[in-house]
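During the reporting period the student researcher (J.K.) took over the structure-prediction task from the postdoctoral fellow and processed the backlog of single-chain submissions. One of the processed entries is reproduced below for the supervisory committee.
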Amino acid sequence: ACSAFSQKSCEECLKNVSCLWCYTNNTCIDYPVRSILPSSSLCSLSNARWGVCWINFEALIIALAVVAGLILVSITVCCCYCCYCRRRSRRLDEEEEQLARKREERRLQSLQRKHERKLKHDEIRKKYGLLQDSDNPYSRFENE
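J.K. obtained the following structure tokens:
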């Protein structure tokens, strides 16, 4: 069916997806399905057209390879970035927990030291009679 479009135009030939147009001899040939790329004996890649007439097969292969490479690189970068962020966020969570534990330990130590200071001060006040008797919180106010 493709050979019927030979010596006509590229656009008419490429209306059928299974056809390949060769500019060297203006022929429309069946696309070699068994091999991915048409052999150079059939038509050189720079003169072969498939799908559209305005871009040769060689440029089409290069463009598709570049686009596929960019997609693969971007997917790889996204995966690596996501894994790094996930690992980093896990590490940040662990650091936050550790800081919270240390903060709580410091707070408890501070409260313990405060309590010990209060006990010492109460002993000193008791020694010098400055501490009110806890049994009798009401005492007489004496004027001198």
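The committee noted the following: Helices lie at 10-13, 57-127.
J.K. will present the remaining backlog at the next meeting.
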